Automatic annotation (TrEMBL), chain A:
SUPFAM superfamilies: Thioesterase/thiol ester dehydrase-isomerase (SSF54637). It comes from the Bacteria. GO terms for molecular function: (3R)-hydroxyacyl-[acyl-carrier-protein] dehydratase activity. Belongs to the UPF0336 family. It comes from Agromyces archimandritae. This is UPF0336 protein G127AT_10070. InterPro entries: FAS1-like_DH_region, HadA-like, HotDog_dom_sf, UPF0336/Enoyl-CoA_hydratase. It holds the Pfam family FAS1_DH_region. Gene3D superfamilies: Hotdog Thioesterase. CDD domains: R_hydratase_like. GO terms for biological process: fatty acid biosynthetic process.
From TrEMBL, chain B:
Belongs to the enoyl-CoA hydratase/isomerase family. Gene3D superfamilies: Hotdog Thioesterase. It comes from Agromyces archimandritae. PANTHER family: (3R)-HYDROXYACYL-ACP DEHYDRATASE SUBUNIT HADB, 3-HYDROXYACYL-THIOESTER DEHYDRATASE HTDX-RELATED. It comes from the Bacteria. InterPro entries: HotDog_dom_sf, MaoC-like_dom. This is MaoC family dehydratase. Residues 15-122 form the MaoC-like domain.
Length: 148, 140
């Protein structure tokens, strides 16, 4: 089965709220070799004007993950996970994620292209906080490799 | 290296770093991110999908590559947009690991908007592993 071009424009229901914990922020920060005190020290984060510990720039991927799982599980999507390669990734921020945020993400498929034997699926996950305010949009292009 | 507030010019190198990556770093990132794809910890599985061996998560490379810019800015809130293209897998040797080098350079300056675009050159040896790695930042 190949990727269904009718996925373009499809919107998914919001994910379950994700509560960002301080220890998760620290764990993720250590994993990406972050050293900034705003990632680890609550006082340093507050002195810099943030409500709590600040998550590293690529942390939104943790919330985005649940939306990509929705996309891959779409019964008529035709996306074979074992053939998926991450093509590119973008984050467009309104503000950084901080500990204490309760975030939901909504995915929309914005593009399906075929190029050679491969399909490129562009998925945009809009992440908002408990007040409905925009935090960050995470955009992924997945390359689904064709059968050789 | 120049600080964010000082006179910047296009072409200035604002940060440089080398990060040694070993298999335990991949395990730590798998746990932190929730990405447990076995190509990041099993050589046999990596080989069955045509890779030479275990590779680093693309998102780990993306995540570590921006850290020198975060340190230069002093505050991750100054990052407005960050994008990369995953051009080549980072193979992590089980014994000696691999070293990922990052060079961050001013590519575009918009003094009126108080913004800059920082381009990252991310390499393993002589090979570029991230393409079009761009960070748009607020300077003021």
């Amino acid at each position: 089965m190949s990727v269904n071009p009718a996925l373009v424009g499809r919107e998914f229901p919001p994910t379950e709220p994700y509560l960002v914990g301080r220890e998760k922020v620290r764990e993720f920060a250590r994993a990406v070799f972050a050293t900034s005190p705003v990632n680890f020290d609550v006082d340093a984060a507050r002195e810099a004007g943030h409500a709590d510990l600040v998550a590293p720039p690529t942390f939104p991927v943790v919330i985005q993950e649940a939306t990509l799982a929705q996309l891959l599980a779409e019964p008529d999507g035709g996306i074979d996970f074992s053939r998926v390669v991450h093509g590119d990734q973008q984050f467009a921020y309104t503000r950084p994620i901080v500990a204490g945020d309760e975030l939901i993400a909504r995915l929309a498929v914005t593009g399906v292209k075929t190029l050679g034997g491969n399909a490129m699926v562009t998925a945009e996950s809009t992440i908002t906080d408990q007040d409905g305010e925009h935090v960050v949009t995470a955009i992924s292009t997945l390359v689904v490799r064709g059968e050789a | 290296m120049r600080a964010p507030g000082s006179d910047l010019s296009v072409g200035d190198i604002i940060a440089e770093d080398s990060v040694p990556l070993t298999r335990d770093a991949l395990v730590r990132y798998a746990g932190a991110s929730g990405d447990f794809n076995p190509i990041h910890y099993r050589d046999d599985v990596a080989k069955t999908v045509g890779l030479p061996g275990v590779i680093a998560h693309g998102m780990l490379t993306m995540g570590l590559a921006v850290q020198p810019v975060v340190d230069w800015l002093g505050d991750p809130a100054r990052i407005l947009d960050y994008r990369v293209r995953f051009t080549r897998p980072v193979v992590v040797d089980p014994e000696i690991g691999v070293v990922v080098s990052v060079l961050a350079k001013v590519a575009v300056l918009d003094e009126e908007a108080g913004e800059a675009r920082i381009d990252l050159t991310v390499k393993v040896g002589e090979e570029t592993v991230l393409g079009k790695a761009q960070v748009r930042v607020r300077l003021d």
